Amino acid sequence: MKILVINPNIVLPMTRDIEATARTAAGPGVQVDAVSPRIGPSAIECYLEFNYASIGVVDTIARTEKEGGADAYITACFCDPGLEAGREITEKPVVGICEAAVTYARMLAPNFSIVTVLDATRRLNEFRMVSYHAEKLCKSIRPTHVGVLEFRENPQCGLDALFEQSRLAVEEDGARCILLGCAGFAAAAREFTEKLGVPVLDGVTLAVRLAESLVQTGHKNVATLSRAYLETKTMKGFDITF
Amino acid sequence: MKILVINPNIVLPMTRDIEATARTAAGPGVQVDAVSPRIGPSAIECYLEFNYASIGVVDTIARTEKEGGADAYITACFCDPGLEAGREITEKPVVGICEAAVTYARMLAPNFSIVTVLDATRRLNEFRMVSYHAEKLCKSIRPTHVGVLEFRENPQCGLDALFEQSRLAVEEDGARCILLGCAGFAAAAREFTEKLGVPVLDGVTLAVRLAESLVQTGHKNVATLSRAYLETKTMKGFDITF
Amino acid sequence: MKILVINPNIVLPMTRDIEATARTAAGPGVQVDAVSPRIGPSAIECYLEFNYASIGVVDTIARTEKEGGADAYITACFCDPGLEAGREITEKPVVGICEAAVTYARMLAPNFSIVTVLDATRRLNEFRMVSYHAEKLCKSIRPTHVGVLEFRENPQCGLDALFEQSRLAVEEDGARCILLGCAGFAAAAREFTEKLGVPVLDGVTLAVRLAESLVQTGHKNVATLSRAYLETKTMKGFDITF
Amino acid sequence: MKILVINPNIVLPMTRDIEATARTAAGPGVQVDAVSPRIGPSAIECYLEFNYASIGVVDTIARTEKEGGADAYITACFCDPGLEAGREITEKPVVGICEAAVTYARMLAPNFSIVTVLDATRRLNEFRMVSYHAEKLCKSIRPTHVGVLEFRENPQCGLDALFEQSRLAVEEDGARCILLGCAGFAAAAREFTEKLGVPVLDGVTLAVRLAESLVQTGHKNVATLSRAYLETKTMKGFDITF
Amino acid sequence: MKILVINPNIVLPMTRDIEATARTAAGPGVQVDAVSPRIGPSAIECYLEFNYASIGVVDTIARTEKEGGADAYITACFCDPGLEAGREITEKPVVGICEAAVTYARMLAPNFSIVTVLDATRRLNEFRMVSYHAEKLCKSIRPTHVGVLEFRENPQCGLDALFEQSRLAVEEDGARCILLGCAGFAAAAREFTEKLGVPVLDGVTLAVRLAESLVQTGHKNVATLSRAYLETKTMKGFDITF
Amino acid sequence: MKILVINPNIVLPMTRDIEATARTAAGPGVQVDAVSPRIGPSAIECYLEFNYASIGVVDTIARTEKEGGADAYITACFCDPGLEAGREITEKPVVGICEAAVTYARMLAPNFSIVTVLDATRRLNEFRMVSYHAEKLCKSIRPTHVGVLEFRENPQCGLDALFEQSRLAVEEDGARCILLGCAGFAAAAREFTEKLGVPVLDGVTLAVRLAESLVQTGHKNVATLSRAYLETKTMKGFDITF
User: Fold this and answer.
1) Element (DSSP H or E) covering residue F75
2) What does the pLDDT read at residue A74?
3) At B34, is the secondary structure helix, strand, or coil?
4) CB-based contact B205 C217, cutoff 8 Å
5) CA D43 centroid distance within chain
6) Which residue from C93, C104, C109 is facing B107, i.e. has the nearest CB?
7) Contacts of A235 in chain B (CB under 8 A)
8) Side-chain-facing half-sphere of E83: CA atoms under 13 Å
9) Which residue does chain F place closest to A217, by CA atoms?
10) How confident is the model over C40-81, as pLDDT tens digits?
């Protein structure tokens, strides 16, 4: 089984970190590779970047499908860019890391909070809570106010802010589970889980497990457009066909 | 006052038709121009094309802003591509044609139905009903199964199908208002209103009126990102800066 | 175009202030007049007065229609008394000032708070949030505890309380837009917008713009009862026919 | 214990019928009287009449309170006019017949349908389903298209239409309980219950029982405005004080 | 009329207290008896005990029905164990004490809070708010952190904690009514009502009144399974038939 | 890894069939065993049996935990009896087959329908749709009117009815995915998927995959009660301790 993890931003060291995290999660015989799209933003913190990142994810899935394809795709940014369109162009499972974290949180705890990056990012989280019918489960969305790239430059400062917001979510908002709201936060999951006494979930790890199990079911996603219809679709100014 | 209507697909004759419709709606002293983006799909009927169309709309707003800007922007496809991101890059009003139709329907009738293009398009309408908190008002979404471009090639056949679905929405679903679910349907509004005895709303016309009145309020939209922050945003592979 | 603004309370100096505000908002060629009903309460702060005020609004619309009518009607109290019944007796647009403020807030900001008069008034606001499907957008409803007439007697004290609650809505409740919850608060809109850095919306101004644009659409409201049916309706003890 | 049933329309023979129904429901030692307000409509089938009927109910409660009062009040039209305002002017229980029918239906069946008068009346029912948080329980609202007064003139024809819509609600909409949507339908409850095999509920009967039990709890309703505040309230053109 | 109050826990002194409370509430000619089931938990504070308590309630109703039956049944623990299944095995009214408290709160106040036992108990309350469509009415659920049996051992300490949480619900959460979240809290209702100035509701008392009035309606509950079907049902390892 | 599948009914041949299905789904190195509880109903078609089945599931989990435990538990009846209580007594994953089917359906299709057993069973499905926040995704719940045991006696007749309802869900209700609403329906999944062209999901298979992946995450469920607290819990008349 081959799983392709798409880091929708184009920061390659981050893609390598995500690949390492994803490979640790994979079962035996599962090949996991991570890539960044040819095109897209360096960070995804607002609707603007979410829109561009969606194109990068769609572009990567379409090209991979033409070259033989993977068995499943993961969109590894916590706003899950390209998820809906990706499912229109391939029958293979496409899974988002926010979607995966929400999926497991439903079974592990009665509610959860999200720790995210910026205020602008919070709106993307709110959008996803609605699209996953998880509004009532989500007690709060707390930004660290440390940007995605700033977090990479000064990880200890970022982790401190992340822990502080996670702790406040548990103690003040009554959260019984924490969703780490960025693919760059994966390293915190284990330590925070121990410190806080509640599950602290990393979407990258969980998306790999969920994608594996989806492949194993043998079911195709049914949001796919027909091949004949898809081939009529072209995008002026974009080097892409479906 | 200058209003820029962006037809997110790149079919120029359709853009001309939309411009004509929009100009008819405009008040005295209001200059309305319609353009297609440099880049984007030829029709927007699914999430895939919605994603690419969003880029075209954002691209057009960003370029226009650099060249002096308009006083308001309209995204003239019924799934309102680029609406949220557009509001992040300009303080000027950005209005969607679906949004405008829903806005006026709230005041003209106790509920409404949408007549749309294809089954795939219906999912975009459902998404917008949720994002505009209009789920409870929407009695049904009925596709004609006539594609956007097919409709242009054979308008009478398209109009017949459109009328049939509008009639069924009124008679079987209890709709008291019809939203025309495509910028290409504008011509039907007046005739269908008379025939069906309920308001049949064209979003292009209404978006022009709504954008005018938003400009007149003098209020800026508050979803805008700060200029300093916006200038840090770049998109690899896209010829765009903010 | 003639727009009749109905101040549902019977305090004429307040009606004159509302008229001045409304006229400032009107476009060229639009005649705006404000009246108080023949009958009704001196302030509207609870369900009791909301009920009586509804009668005054209906009475005013019915009489005006008999005398030639206006092109649109505005009910200028923030609980929008008589809105639904008004739409049953005339095909012309009837707009509420709360409705107008909510309409524009949807496009200007991701959420809003309402600053209102008393605790009893808050329940009327809650009712309107439900009837306009805006519950999820409304972060809080904050009373100043200064009554409508007390506000007129001591405006500076009222404005101070109003600003304090607006500020708390922004800083503590996360509101990104403020709706001024009384027709008597209109004067605060501009100054508060500058001070708070978020749109502070006055419903009177916005209702005029919205009513104008509704008239321009040419669409009739479809909640209207048939003339034949309406003429069978009489109200014992009320000097009114329809 | 004295319960005052207010028939909000001013058709006295109907008030007498309602009184007879209500007295049958009353427990030992409970005195039940029915009155029509001094002022109000002859039938209540739309928002317009709902508004005027609310005044009649409020007026009747206020006058009765001044003359010694009853122990509980019932507003005996299925849209429950004056319910909220009535609770502001007396601490005694005020109960609506729609409210009572919904209250018992919650315990007798997993869902229900309403059989109502006209299409215009349906909107009042929809409003009440929202205000009682019963939207999800209500499978359908089916009008007979026989007006309130027409029903009194030709009862057999009205009952036939009523039975037909009740039957369709059970057989086609899956309703497991029927709420009779007019105080004038009371006589049908027993017979329809037997014929249809599901509870067919008359709100008048049930409101008497509910009001009795509310009085027995000894609890005051807490929506009441303070006496001092209430006494400042006057309504120009209405012969009423509080 | 005979009403059987089932205290789902097996602490007999508590059953006697509940019986005393229930008898005080009963009307003339109504015989009220309270029993504990043959089987079940000593306290009900979590889903685990809720499940076992449901069996005890079902068992008690089934046995009572075989021996002649009561006219109505009350399940007297605030999570209302056995309510749904009880209604499947008898056509007589089955009422829960949480259900009764919510029923009356709807008419006495615009909202309410629940004071409950433990954090684990709160989840049962949340479940019931959903099943009674009362989520929007419930401002908060506040545990005292004093267990059911601990409360019996040290009542003054328990009452102090209960009052403190009730007071906080009113002052900080804006509750206008308090629901006492345990059958063991009944004694506090009167005193707390006076001290807090809002209705403080005891479900045991209210369930008796509600059950009485349900019996008086003469309506049967329609969730009942047919006798023929019910007799096919057996439970291995349980000494029960239906 | 050891997964214990609990068939909550006590029909051993059915338990053997479920075990066979479950083993087919399991990954390498995963030992799957199926058992029936010591106690419980022979079929689960209504709330009554759901309540008794919950006890059997809790009993089985508690006993298994005392004897060394499994790594995960599955409750293999489509109403997921004992799910919430099971999670209170073990930190290991407990998964329901309805929960698993809903989990995968969210990613495979935009909506789904459930084909279930009887009308009484439908209410259990409705309850689970609410508890899993999946009400909006579920287009319809269609009973075959063939009981659980009748289905085993005459499988072809049962399968025909099942296919007919599945087909109607797709063609009339617009379902894009079918959830098989009984552990006894597993054999139909593959054939129906091919015939209907949409995913037809068997919860037993999917629950095994989901439980495996939950174990692999290493996260404990956080609804668990503390051991000290749990040990105070006893159930009179039940041979069980925790």
Assistant:
1) strand F72-75
2) 98
3) strand
4) yes
5) 13
6) C93
7) 39-41, 49, 52
8) 24
9) F206
10) 999 999 999 999 999 999 999 999 999 999 999 999 999 999
Decide: F and E in contact? Rule: 3+ Cβ pairs under 8 Å.
Answer: yes
**Best of A236, A239, A240, A241 to disrupt the B interface by mutation (most B CBs within 10 Å)?**
A236
CB contact under 8 A, B99 and C107: yes
Residue with tokens 């206006």: C70
Shortest CA distance to C184 belongs to which of C20, C56, C4? C20
Q: Does the pLDDT at position D148 exceed 90?
A: no
- Residue E108 to chain D, least CA–CA distance (Å): 4
Interchain pair B47, A242: CB under 8 A: no
Report chain A residues touching chain F, CB-CB < 8 A: 25, 27-28, 93, 95, 99, 103-104, 106-110, 132-134, 136-137, 176-177, 193, 198-199, 201, 205-206, 209-210, 212-214, 216-217, 219-223
Residue of C nearest to B105 (CA): C221
Q: Name the token pair of F72.
A: 């995960």
- Token pair in block for residue B158: 């398209």
Which domains are delineated in chain A? Answer: 2-96+205-228 (3.40.50.12500), 98-203 (3.40.50.12500)
Report the distance separating Cα D212 and Cα D205, nearest Å: 11
CA distance F236 to chain E (A): 5
Q: Rounded mean pLDDT of D34-47? A: 97
- pLDDT, tens digit (0-9, with 9 covering 90-100), for E140-172: 999 999 998 899 899 999 999 999 999 999 999
Tell me: the pLDDT tens digits for B182-204?
Answer: 999 998 999 999 999 999 999 99
Q: Can you spell out the DSSP letters for chain C?
A: -EEEEE-SS--HHHHHHHHHHHHHHPPTT-EEEEE--SSEES---SHHHHHHHHHHHHHHHHHHHHTT--SEEEE-STT-TTHHHHHHH-SS-EEEHHHHHHHHHHHH-S-EEEEES-HHHHHHHHHHHHHTT-GGGEEEEEE----HHHHHHSHHHHHHHHHHHHHHHHHTT--SSEEE-SGGGGGGHHHHHHHHSS-EEEHHHHHHHHHHHHHHHTPPPTTPPPHHHHHT-BEETS--B-
**Helical (H) or strand (E) element with A202:** strand A200-202
Amino acid identity at F223: A
Angle between helices E119-131 and F119-131 (to 10 degrees): 130
Place of tokens 């909409």: D173
Token readout for A48 is 């603007």
CB contact under 8 A, D209 and E193: no
- Alpha-carbon distance of C227 to C149, in angstroms, equals 39
What is the DSSP pairing of strand D72-75 with strand D94-96?
parallel
Cα separation, C12 vs C35, in Å, equals 8
pLDDT in tens, F118-164: 999 999 999 999 999 999 999 999 999 999 889 989 999 999 999 99
Closest residue by Cα to residue D163 from D127, D190, D123: D190
Tokens matching residue D62: 């206020």
Residue B79 Ramachandran class (φ > 0 left, ψ -120 to 50 alpha, else beta): alpha
CB F137 within 8 Å of CB A133: yes
- Nearest C-alpha neighbor of E107 from the set C128, D64, D124, D102: D102
> Tens-digit pLDDT profile for chain B (242 aa)?
999 999 999 999 999 999 999 999 999 999 999 999 999 999 999 999 999 999 999 999 999 999 999 999 999 999 999 999 999 999 999 999 999 999 999 999 999 999 999 999 999 999 999 999 999 999 999 999 999 889 989 999 999 999 999 999 999 999 999 999 999 999 899 999 999 999 999 999 999 999 999 999 999 999 999 999 999 999 999 999 99
pTM: 0.97
Residues F123 and C212: their CA atoms lie apart, in Å, by 50
- How far does the CA of residue E237 sit from the closest CA of chain D (Å)? 30
CB-CB contact of C32 with C3 (8 Å): yes
